[in-house]
Amino acid sequence: MSRMQRRLRVAVQVLWLIVLVLAAIALVLVLVNALPWSLTWDLWTVLTAVGTVGATLVALVLALRAWTQEKDATARFVSAWVTDEYQPRSDGSSYKRVAHLHVANESNEPVFNAMVNVHVGRDSIPLGPLAAPAPISVIPQRRELIFDISVPLLAHADSWYPKAELTFTDPTGRHWLRGVNGELQDVSRQGLRWSKKSGPGDERQLGNQESLFNPMLVALTFLSGLRDDKTEIDDLRVLLAPEASGWDKADWDALRSELADFQPTSMVDYPAPRIARVKLSGDKTLEGKSVEGNGKPLELDVYMFMTLTLDPQQGWRVFGVGANVPPDAIYFGGSLSEEILPYRDSVGDEERGK
Questions:
Q1: pTM for this entry
Q2: What is the CATH architecture of 202-351?
């Protein structure tokens, strides 16, 4: 329904109510005419005043209702959700989990600067946008965007009950929050801020600390080893992506010095299904702080990226540290066509033979 049609419908409703109010007043006046003249005059004066006030109140209530409906006319048609299912692998050996993040705008107008936050587990732990852009600059009218988050969820042991939270700006400039349970809230007067309070599930946001299919674990292990003077460089090579030939010429002492004050932020984003990106903050004043509230993303003044690539059988490896590396600048050597097998060692050879 277009905006003009909605306004016309509201106008018709207002007109009908006014007609009903006037009809009721007319009926009362007919009854009043049967009364004595002096009493009729007093009642006429009172009823006229009451009718005028009543009609005004009705008009104001309807106008307020129309304004409220018009206010969220676009926002109430914007939503986000996650589908989660299991599909058999191409070789028939097992099932694989397939999860998709859906962001839809069923209104007749586009919305802007959308930020998605995927939540998992019974405690609804926020993991960030995962495979979705941050932000999604525009969600066109009557469109649904779909992002594959199957690989990002492999990093988390408790990734059940995935839901999505969405913030966005409508064409009038109002900022909205669509909660994980579908509730819609106007958050135009709110904003993000740094807080010293522990966020919900801070440690759980880091993912499974025993799986190499968790890029945050690999990033933390690499940084820890790099800063440890007792660590041999050859010991770090097992964490490096073999397709990144630049590591052979790396100045490890310079890299160790450069990364001394940089710490990873708590969320990983995935610009492509087998590429992970961990943002490293160099602002020491932000250590121990978390982001709180709703609004536009907060920008870091000092940062760099750690880019990781996924080996389908071995897990994540560090491709590079520094500037953002676009996905089409990475050569995978044919591994993109191989199926990801994160659980191949979860059952021993003896168990497989039974």
A1: 0.74
A2: Roll (3.10)
